[in-house]
Amino acid sequence: MEGKGGTHSAIAIDGPAASGKSTVARMLAERLGLIMVNSGAMYRAVTWEVVRRGIDPSDRGAVAAMLDDVEIACGIDGMHSTVTVDGRDPGAELRSDDVNRAVSQVAAVPEVREVLVAKQRAMLAEGDLIMEGRDIASVVFPETPYKLYIDASEEVRRRRRAAEGQSDEVGHRDRLDSARKTSPLKVADGAVVIDTSDMDIAEVVEAAVAELRQRGWFEREGAEPAI
Ligand code: C5P
Predict the structure, then answer these.
(1) How many domains, the chain?
(2) In terms of C-beta density within 10 A (0-12 exposed, 13-18 middle, 19 or more buried), how is residue 54 classed?
(3) Is 79 inside any structural domain?
(4) pLDDT for 72-88, tens place per residue?
């Protein structure tokens, strides 16, 4: 599947934890009138179920086996992606300490990625979208020309998470995410890197819009008028 499926286009946003990519993705989606898909929530939902069932997240076989026994449903509500596990919405528990601790191990299981990447690609049928994650430009939509990599120093990212009141070892999670064999976090071919360490959010959004303009986002087939 390509980044341009039929008349629909995807903007891929990747980057490490707490780099600001979710905020940028949300603001860009609102400004450009696009569906916003948070792929991390899907990995977190699977992890929530792993934790709930008391499965050891480092036991790849057990995590993979659970997939045959659970219904992970990804949908769209208005302009946002949703995810349920056997019909239940994990809500705020997606960001619990238990999930933060285990998610990188669960996300490294190839069977988990296979199931979720298929669901992510299928979402392009719903309309033009922005999807944020770790492997969106490299694996999910490698053909899209609209690839942004949002970065920030580890120190800045740790401070941002702490300011949100979350205990999240972002550096540890990034090292696991970057080191895994299947679809590691990396700057994809053709992606532009935006380092947000010394930028405020409005500046980041402007930089992203400028980059998308340069890459022809506003001239593509079926595009909304340029803003
Ligand atoms: O984006 P967020 O920090 O919520 O993602 C949680 C975790 O899910 C990441 O640390 C990573 O292990 C995993 N993830 C992934 N691929 C994606 C999105 C998230 O492996 N596309």
Answers:
(1) 1
(2) exposed
(3) yes
(4) 999 999 999 999 999 99
Minimum CA distance residue for ligand 1 atom 8: 40
What CATH number is associated with residue 131?
3.40.50.300
For ligand 1, atom 16: residue with the closest CA: 134
Sorting pLDDT into bands at 50, 70 and 90, what band is 226?
low
In a domain, 227, yes or no: no
For the stretch 182-207, pLDDT in tens is 999 999 999 999 999 999 999 999 99
How far, in Å, is the centroid of ligand 1 from the Cα of 18? 11
pTM above 0.85, yes or no: yes
| 44 found inside a domain | yes
75: domain range?
Answer: 4-219
